[in-house]
Hints:
Blueprint: H1 5-24, H2 32-39, H3 43-49, H4 53-69, H5 72-75, H6 82-99, H7 101-112, H8 119-127, H9 131-141, H10 150-166, H11 172-186
Helix pairs in contact: 1-2, 1-7, 4-7, 4-8, 6-7, 6-9, 6-10, 6-11, 10-11
Amino acid sequence: MRMRTTDINKIKAIKESVLNLxxxxxxxxxxxxxxxxxxxxxxxxxYLHYHDKTDxxxxxxxxxxxxxxEGLDQAIDQxxxxxxxxxxxxRFSVAQYRKFxxxxxxMGTLWSNQELLDQHAIEFGNTxxxxxxxxxxxxxxxxxxxPLSHDVLEIFFTVPTLVLEREPKMDEKELNxxxxxxxxxxxx
Length: 188
């Protein structure tokens, strides 16, 4: 069964509404009624495509996670040393944040509020093979770096985007300082 163009446009409007509301009212204050109003659709339209708010957030989380990681494998040059690879991964994340700020904010908010996701989305987020997960394994196996968990490494790697949220005009010099700080923090 093919989806009509109007249905596709409504789904896009619903997703865009969620991204906007996550920034403006937060995830806990976001209701399907608010999503529907922002999207210009009836609440029933949301329930035609999603079981509930958790299902909607979870499916959008999976979609955005894939989008934000797209191209990361080409950005990390495994022939370089780990310090260079760390810088490449962080630069990629900053570039993606600048390119997709609403989506990056949404992901960061859900990362801190995983109770709003269903089990499938959590497993998807934890098991999705990614060049970043592979980089974390290489860091964990290197004698030059502290034996930090995946979660701790993920927190360190989010520092540049957290700074970017507060300082949107972060320049190259500041980014280099942050990359150096992160690298030093995870080294032995």
